[in-house]
Amino acid sequence: MATVLQASLLVRHSTPEVGDAFVASRLDAPAGVFGAPPHGLDTAAIVRRADPLPA
């Protein structure tokens, strides 16, 4: 339940890239691969969001 709540909050209040990455790595992941990001995520956008000094 906590993971679903986290996903809901991220999808509603974060950027689409962050919400999509969380859902893909936590809820859509195959059994036994919890937290492993799948291919095709926009990781550059996630890193840019976390960068305190954007270029």
Descriptive keywords:
single chain; 55 residues; mainly alpha
Task: Describe this entry's structure for a reader.
This protein is mostly helical. The chain is globular. It has three helices and no strands. The termini are far apart. Helix 1 runs antiparallel to helix 2. The chain has one domain.
Summed up, the domain count is 1
**How many β strands by DSSP?**
0
Order of helices and strands: HHH
Structural class: mainly alpha
Distance between the termini: 38 Å
**Mind describing the biggest β-sheet?**
none
Low-confidence stretches: none
Task: Tally the helices.
Answer: 3
Mean pLDDT comes to 87
Molecular shape: globular
* Rg value: 12 Å
Strand content is: under 5%
Approximate helicity band: 55-70%
Tell me briefly what this model is.
The chain has 55 residues and is mainly alpha-helical. The protein has one domain (2-50). Helices cover 56% and strands 0% of the residues.
Helices and strands in order:
Elements lengths: L1 H12 L2 H11 L16 H8 L5
Helix pairs in contact: 1-2
